[in-house]
Amino acid sequence: MNINDIQKKFEGFKPKPMDYEVSFSVLVPLIEIDGELNLIFEVRSNSVAQPGEISFPGGRIEEEESPREAAIRETSEELLLNKENIEIISELNYASSKSGAFVFTFLGLIKGIDPYEIDYNTDEVSEIFFVPLSFFLEKEPEQYYMNYYPKADNDFPYHMVNNGEGYKWESIRYPVYFYKYYNYIIWGMTAKITYSFIKALTNRNGSEENK
């Protein structure tokens, strides 16, 4: 193999995250209600992972599908919308979960439909609710921290590592955000995405999010 072979191989190469076998894409959906912009949130049904938790529409990126296409498709499927009702405004910051998933996020406008006539997919969603954008602009989330410590498998080859079992592995400390809106608790990845969006919208300086 020569340099020309390598250059040809990487023509049109699209980078993707290392070590992440699963990638997801979500939409941060805005909708106008009585002249005011709101965010749409879903409560996950009992038949899907993390039942009862609050999320944005989204899901796994399928083979040969772009993150943008996945965000539109998943939103269309979960909120039972025509794709023409979904206008992508911008790609937002991406995130990685500690469970090994890489998450692309997009900001979108839901248009051409009465908010209260959205007939969501009850197989995946038990409820939707709306939160005025002004709520997030005026309120900082509560912030707490989780700590993760490395633990190797029993067959880990310590003999190939400097200092063996005495090697100083780094632990992970990262913020977990919480928003309280009436009886709803928006937290975890959904709150992290929301807060990242608000900081980008307002150029607000906050502590750097741990990726």
Average the pLDDT over all residues and give the rounded result: 91
Distance between the termini: 36 Å
What is the H-and-E element order? HEEEEHEEEEHEEEH
Give the strand tally. 11
- Counting copies of identical and different chains, the oligomeric state is single chain
Largest sheet: 8 strands, mixed
Which stretches of 5+ consecutive residues score pLDDT under 50? Answer: 206-211
Shape: globular
Q: How would you describe the overall organization of this protein?
A:
The protein has 211 residues and is an alpha+beta fold. It contains 4 helices and 11 strands, in the order αββββαββββαβββα. A hairpin with a 2-residue loop joins β1 (22-33) and β2. The longest helix is centred in the last third of the chain and has 15 residues, at 188-202. It starts with a helix and ends in a 9-residue tail after the last helix.
Give the SSE map.
Layout: H1 3-9, E1 22-33, E2 36-44, E3 54-55, E4 58-60, H2 67-79, E5 86-91, E6 95-96, E7 101-110, E8 125-132, H3 133-138, E9 142-148, E10 172-181, E11 184-187, H4 188-202
Parallel strand pairs: 1-7
Antiparallel strand pairs: 1-2, 1-4, 2-3, 2-8, 5-7, 6-7, 9-10, 10-11
Key structural traits:
single chain; 211 residues; alpha+beta; eight-stranded mixed β-sheet; three-stranded antiparallel β-sheet; 4 helices; 19% helix; globular; disordered C terminus
Q: Summed up, what is this model?
A:
The chain is α+β, with helices and mostly antiparallel strands.
